[in-house]
Design a protein that fits this description.
Number of helices: 4
Strand order of the largest sheet: 6-3-4-5-7
Number of strands: 7
Radius of gyration: 17 Å
CATH class: Alpha Beta
CATH superfamily: Medium-chain alcohol dehydrogenases, catalytic domain
Strand content: 25-35%
CATH topology: Quinone Oxidoreductase, Chain A, domain 1
Structural class: alpha+beta
Shape: globular
Largest sheet: 5 strands, antiparallel
Order of helices and strands: EEEHHEEEEHH
């Protein structure tokens, strides 16, 4: 029987590992066995420390304990819903899932990770994507 553990911030400045139920797959989803996940020194540390957060700010609306952090997960597809192509099983993927042993994800949100890319490097996929998106948004030009 597989066990599912997740990181949780039960309260300010406290981190715990919690045993959770195995996630259930719904239509359009896959089950992923996590290989590694990246802890954000920006977003997640801000949430954990809850310091310097101004009342009425976006942060004050987001930070509500307990928090189930994580959004940069690398794993392998372990199972699929009946309506999802079974060819996903065994594929190494990047997702925006939380820090847990097993997570579910909408199959349309999966990003395949080439086998030659180490998992601990692949976990930075979101940081790279964010830099690209921010560059497009602010429209930096030469000259």
């Amino acid at each position: 029987m597989q066990e599912n553990y997740a990181i949780i911030f039960p309260k300010e400045n406290e981190v715990a590992i919690e045993k959770k139920n195995m996630p259930k797959i719904k239509n359009g989803q896959v089950l992923i066995k996590t290989i590694c996940s990246l802890i954000s020194t920006g977003t997640e540390m801000t949430m954990l420390r809850n310091r310097g957060v101004e009342i009425g700010s976006v942060w004050s609306k987001i930070i509500k304990f307990p928090i189930h952090p994580g959004y940069s997960n690398i794993g392998r597809v372990a199972d699929t819903a009946p309506d999802v192509d079974g060819l996903w099983i065994g594929k190494k993927v990047a997702t925006w899932a939380p820090h847990a042993s097993y997570v579910v994800c909408d199959s349309k949100m999966l990003r395949t990770v080439p086998e030659e890319i180490p998992e601990d490097e692949a976990a930075f996929f979101l940081s790279g994507r964010d830099c690209h998106e921010q560059h497009k948004e602010i429209r930096i030009v030469l000259g």
